[in-house]
Amino acid sequence: MDLSIRVSGAAGQGIGTLGSLLTGAFAGMGLHVFTTETYMSRIRGGLNWMDIRIGDYELLSGKETPDLLVVLDPQSLSFLRERTNEWTLLLLNGPPTVGMVAIDFAQEAKALTGEVVMANAVAAGAVFALLGYHAARLHSLLDARFARKGQDVVDANIRCAQRGAELAEPYVGTKLPPKGVGAPDFVCSGSEAIGLGAATAGVKFVAAYPMTPSTATFTYLANVADEFGIVVEQAEDEIAAINMVCGATYAGVPAMTTTSGGGFALMVEGVSLAGMLELPAFIMLGQRPGPATGLPTRTGQTELRFAVHGSHGEFARAVYAPGTPRQAYELTRVGLETAHRYQTPVILLTDQFLADMRTNTTPLDRAPRPIDRHILADPPPDYVRYTITPDGVSPRALPGSAAYLVADSDEHGEDGHITEDLNVRVQMQEKRLRKLEGMRREVLAPERYGPERAEHLLICWGSTYGPCREAVGLLNQRDISAAMLHFSQVWPLNVGAARAAIASTGARRITVVEGNATGQFASLLREEQVLGECELMPKYDGLPFTGEEIARRAQS
Q: Within 10 Å of residue 455's Cβ, how many Cβ atoms?
């Protein structure tokens, strides 16, 4: 059993506050929650909404239409009603209206407290009542949320919530709401999970220029900077940010930057510098629909090829693409470990859907567990920085140690000095590229979900994990044999393991599901000879997939 609540209105009306109140309350009741956000690229006005799905089983994506639509801005009602179904209940912020529940949240709050600021508490109480929950379940959350403002503020919010419930009570139906099943009350977003993963892994320097959807991770790291001892620098632009990261990692400091497609375009020269200097630069790249500014606050998986190939010159790199907040937390650490083990840039590829999704999970470990930086503590007298080794990874000493270090963006010999010797050039380039051999042996295997043998195989990567997994469940419930392979590492690929995973399903129909128009991952799989002909299920309207949508399209 599950229900979806869509809270909608103009930017600046407190959608996030109301959504956060509801999400925290539902999670505290032991319900599974899954929230997504849709918002326009403007400070105020426009039309934004947050979907809060609750259930008594694990939820993996949003729903296409809400069961309860909360409309804070009546002017958007006609547009929103087109995205409902015949069973959707409407709660309108305004005067009495035929065919829907109408409550003037601000007016009720002002009548009770003399201020309109607590209108969201009135709305939250009304939502709880309409779903069949007692408003008293909100009390502890309101207490925790506003305790620092004093008991008077807490009590005023509770009165507002109770008033909202009283006004909505006459409209309560007979449908039973989901019951709590002991789901974790810890809720986090993909952005927060990446930030915490980086902080606990020992990142000590972050430089970035704000750019949606990467900014949330940047600001999270700023908020926990004192707790984890991190220096956070808002650079003047992305070029400065990546070069600061190069400088920090050269000095031995675990460092990272956060950016989006347009910012990564500016960083490419710096990323190539890290490739030549063999520096463990870690980049979180939040995708969004382009070209150019495109849809800056919407979602898409449009920069896979850019992440894999964006550079001048060739060098080893790894690209990870988590699908859930927990994966985001874990793969941030894996990515940092890979960057330092192989002394090369690593990219964590995310998008707005993953960045903003909030779901409950077991609490993420906040204990610091610094990664191994693979620093040579006692370099020998004859140490040279870029020693040619069988695996391509040279012993790494730090400037200021007993070693003498030379680093140069031009081609150089083992000692770091510029060279025009073309034989040395070949040796050094082959040395750097040999890192890929070790990286391929450590590639994360794709995660499989569904029956051992299946007629239809869905292949996905990154944030499409949850919607695809939900679709597989729906298809099998409809007696359509389906399974899923999810790739959380998209470069490099272990070709043999990937081929075997696909072949093991015995699927006669293979569909690659991805949030772009050209099938970038499908073409990468074909290029690497992992996959032959297949079907594509693209999506490029700026909205995330849902499990319902994938299942419906897979049946067509």
A: 15
231 and 280 inside one domain: yes
Q: Are 277 and 252 in contact (CB under 8 A)?
A: no
List pLDDT tens digits, range 86-118.
Answer: 889 999 998 888 888 999 999 999 999 999 999
Q: How many CB atoms lie within 10 A of CB 48?
A: 23
The whole-angstrom separation of Cα 383 and Cα 396 is 10
User: Is the previous residue joined to 96 through a cis bond, with omega within 30 degrees of 0?
Assistant: no
Examine the domain organization and report whether 91 and 121 are in the same domain: yes
For residue 368, is it within any domain?
Answer: no
What is the distance between the alpha carbons of residues 16 and 238, in angstroms, rounded to a whole number?
A: 28
Domain contains 180: no
Instruction: Give the model confidence (pLDDT) of 211-231 as tens digits.
Output: 999 999 999 999 999 999 999
Answer yes or no: do 259 and 124 share one domain.
Answer: no
Q: Are residues 476 and 341 in the same domain?
A: no
In a domain, 429, yes or no: yes
* Joined tokens for residue 310: 């964006």
Nearest to 201 by CA among 311, 334, 33: 334
Q: Tell me the percentage of the chain whose pLDDT exceeds 90.
A: 87
| CATH number of the CATH domain containing 159 | 3.40.920.10
- What Rg do the C-alpha atoms of the chain give, in angstroms? 26
Lookup: tokens for 234: 């808002």
Give the model confidence (pLDDT) of 308-363 as tens digits.
Answer: 999 999 999 999 999 999 999 999 999 999 999 999 999 999 999 999 999 999 99
